Amino acid sequence: MLIKKIVCEVDAANAEAFSKAQSQWGALSHVAGFVKQAGGWRTSADRPLTAEIISVWEDREVYEAFMENEHDSIFEENEQKAVIHSIEVTLYEEDESFIHDLLHSPAIRYEPEWRVLRA
């Protein structure tokens, strides 16, 4: 499985707009090879705020097809780019136990509306 870890810094004034945009990633549920996504705010008192999102894909090939064909239209439509101060993306090829640990980190206050499951 391929895991994508996205870490975004967001100014406090844009936290609500970022959260609203993040909740609009539901289109992922219909993308071939997508498995699930979850995320939330780190519980530390970072300024700017730090959001962490984990998405899980069947393999790198389907993920790369998504990035090439669908990612940009979703990202541009929800206008999330305008409220992100910085973004860092890391890709991992790992097993289920690694995914479970990432998706259940006590350092993250998970936002239910950011969760996306495969349709």
TrEMBL record:
Q: Name one Pfam family in it.
A: DUF4937
Q: Which residues form the DUF4937 domain?
A: 2-92
| Alphabetized InterPro entries for the sequence | Dimeric_a/b-barrel (IPR011008), DUF4937 (IPR032555)
For this entry, the protein name equals YdbC family protein
